[in-house]
Amino acid sequence: MTKKPERIFVKGNEAISRGALAAKCKCFFGYPITPQNDIPEFMSSEIIKAGGDFVQAESEVAAANMLLGAGAAGIRAMTSSSSPGMSLKQEAISYMAGSEVPAVIVNINRGGPGLGDIGPAQGDYYQSTRGGGHGDYRHFTLAPGNAQEAYDLTIRAFDIAFEHRTPVLILGDAIMGQMKEPIVPWEPESIDEENGREWCIDGHESKREKRLIKSLFLAEGALAGQNQHLQAKYDAWQDLAEAEEFECEDADLVICAYGSIGRIAKSAVRKFRKEGKKVGLFRPITLFPFPNKALKDLAKQGKRFLTIEHNLGQMVDDVRLAIRTVADSDFYPIYPGNLPTPDELEEPILKSLEGK
Amino acid sequence: MSEMNEKLVFDKPESVIDRATHYCPGCHHGIAHRLIGELMDEMDLPGKTLMTTSIGCSVFLYNYLNVDAVEAPHGRAPAVATGVKRARPDHFVFTYQGDGDLASIGMAEIMHAANRGEKISVVFINNTIYGMTGGQMAPTTMINQVTTTTPAGRCQTHEGAPIRMTEIIASLGGTAFAARGSLDSVKNIRAAKKHLKKAFELQLNGTGFGFVELLSGCPTNWKMTPLQANERIQNELIPYFPLGVYKDVSEEGGVC
Q1: Cis peptide leading into B73, omega within 30 of 0?
Q2: pTM to 2 decimals?
Q3: Which residues does chain A have within 8 Å of residue B64's beta carbon, measured at their own beta carbons?
């Protein structure tokens, strides 16, 4: 990778957009919804300049289905949305998972349920990690905690999508999306956009057999076979799980938090460390696959756990599943609709640390 | 006459795969498939075609035409085809959709794809009923037509009136070509092929969106013989859904 020397000052949303362009994203299909509008707005000019195409779709449903079409044609493509819009995209995401179409989808999570608010929240964790649409499926879910990571993970998302023929979700929130901070853009050395596309529909003038991208399997046992194949693929992803461990080594208490909340929790950890209190942070970067092994390894060391989320308790399920044979986790919810600060987290962390 | 002098006058188009279809006796999907297959051969399309199939009886179109295909969710074929075409603008892209798919659940997608002037072609099979799901009411079901969800016949004050899609699509700015044909008779089948050819040409020369509605029979769900179904198209459907070209920008000299 060639690091470009310059730093630029951008919102997280713009970092994602620039990351997509660096990854040679060629088509963007968008629909306005706050707080992700910077992405389609940026793309509407920049992807055209880069020789790609932009469509403002008539709905999130249509945008996600356009993505399905472009992905089936073997092209690097992306869509973005925010929570209520993500619900509408789930239909196409299920189809993309079922027919193994690669694509990148961004969700800048806002408060819910329903119309909720336009502030930051993490209430879409279940939807993002369980397969929010119908059927048995999963997809990669990446959770950047800052603008640089948003840029880096967006580039990675395209590689993962095409390597594993899967939709990849980038899950941010209004803090990460709207906050401006410096990033150092970089570009992958080379991307062979046609390599590994022996499955896609691109016409068969070379006289090969025709290709079908489909999720319908009616013959007896055919769907079972496809589900078995998909499940094996998802199981194998476990090796690619990733998390940041900060001050965990000698910690008595490990805070589990992701995305913006992971970043805020990190500030709280720093403060406690200055006071000599042994607190660490475990921040999953892949929410699916969830970093089970790394977390369980920490549990085996006899540490206590506190999960902090900007929701009423969703990732805590995965934390408990990972460590269930060894330990348990306390939970502290930040109710969506509130903007959390590191100070607010001190009391629940202290309580957990003292085992109260 | 010796065998040597016999001239083959009718054969399977190369683009149509040699296999039995799953369609019911008297169904017109087979005719529509053949027309598309003939045009594919004549216009040298198979190697550069990316087909978007949809939901209902016609989902298996990809088993009968020898071209690359992607399967779209209910009603979303025009959006999927938009993505395909934007991704690979040099390819020929078409959707094949029934009346429930296109005029009900997919109404938004077809309207906006047409209005944007997507360079795709849409083949719309209108048989006034949901076929694969067992004969429920469609947006194009005729007044008084009995279906499994209008057991007393479609009533305008309760279920609304049958939607005339071609007229609506023709009114949109991005539409380059909109026509309605019928598959009930040889004469109408020949005209239908001309409509399809024109729609395909207008995509290939980059002019814009082409839409061809084809009135079709569903003898099974209409509870008719194939011949009765053809008579119904002539006597009942064509008077309400008049045949012909509703918009052709190449004739008008317009640009979309």
Answers
A1: no
A2: 0.96
A3: none
